What does this fold into?
Amino acid sequence: MASTIQLDVVTAEQKLFSGTVEKVIAPGSMGDLGIYPKHTQLISKLRAGELKYTTAEGTTSLFVSGGVLEVQPTLITVLADTGMRAEDLDAQAAQDAMKRAHDALQGKDPADLDYEAIQAELEAAKAQMEMLHRIGKVRG
Amino acid sequence: MAGAKEIRTQIKSIQNTRKITKAMEMVAASKMRRAQDRMNASRPYAQKMRAVVGHVANGHLEYKHPYTLERPTVKRVGYIIISTDRGLCGGLNVNLFKTALQDIAKWKAQGVEVDLAVFGNKAANAFRRYGLAAQKTHMGDAPKIADMVGTIKVMLDAYAEGRIDRLYMVENEFVNSMTQRPQVTQLIPIAPIKDEAMSHYWDYIYEPESKGVIDALMQRYIESLIYQGVVENVACEMAARMVAMKSASDNAGKMINDLKLVYNKARQAAITQEISEIVGGAAAV
It folds into this structure.
């Protein structure tokens, strides 16, 4: 039996996953991070993207839109800003969000635009679409 | 038969009031259930956040975040007071304000000034004369973090710039649907929980660099605590309203019964009088 590590994935609205896993791949802000049990202490920001974890039953995908990842040798905590399970990802909603962000960047008075927030929203929507393509829910 | 008509109208009006309080009770009950769900859903995040910040406080980090450092002298403190927007929820807000004022009075006795930021209409009105640094009202039954960040930022900036040396949050704790307890929580500086297992010398690997990550973490930590407080307060509000409206309905019912008794007595007396008048009249003929 492979060694395992406790993983908790929570967002402000709900708990997405809690259990023991063999491996986690997280979308760190500097690139994807693969984490195995007994990893040294690490703390990283997350970008929007796919979080994969492998349990004895297989590999599962989650979508997170940024947040913070903390690793202790026996414990991984993902504090996601928002997140959802891959099967809950909605292509239509992602597309709508992308369109909204685009419109917001173009249409309004540039003075009262919150570029950072819109950019983040756009990134998140893009990352969702990418993930949908990868898991084969959308053909494109 | 004086007063019978007046009593009847009074009974009618109390019955109408009871209908309203009954409806409010039921609305509050269903809203409370949803508010409780929301509160429970966001709890794991707050717990995990607290655990991670606890690790951070126990580590030997290359970068000490200002929120983890105790300032030697306290000249001014900040309070974030979380109340409801609407009334008719019993003594919920009054008890909360009493707790807050007691705490504030303790600081004032030591010559420490106080800055206030409030959530909710009731606190905004109650503390207006103290001068408010920031306020946010009418966030609805499902408050969003996005609505709160502005007010929170005012207080965090005040701390960062050294205008306040401590930050507290005053909110109602949801014990159960019958009991809500006002409590004062210290937000900054973060009181570290000592953990022996973590007392050895260690530090994180940071990505990207320590300051950015820890800053982001601390900001989220404070926001999550306040969000949890606001969500919990909504659940408290609904529970308190439900209880208050239930007792109002019960009281209305009691009053109606009493009035009905008086009305019937008056009616009976009038009939008796009429009969005796008729009998008396017949005898005289």
Q: What stands out?
A: Chain B is about 60% helix and 15% strand. The radius of gyration of chain B is 28 Å.
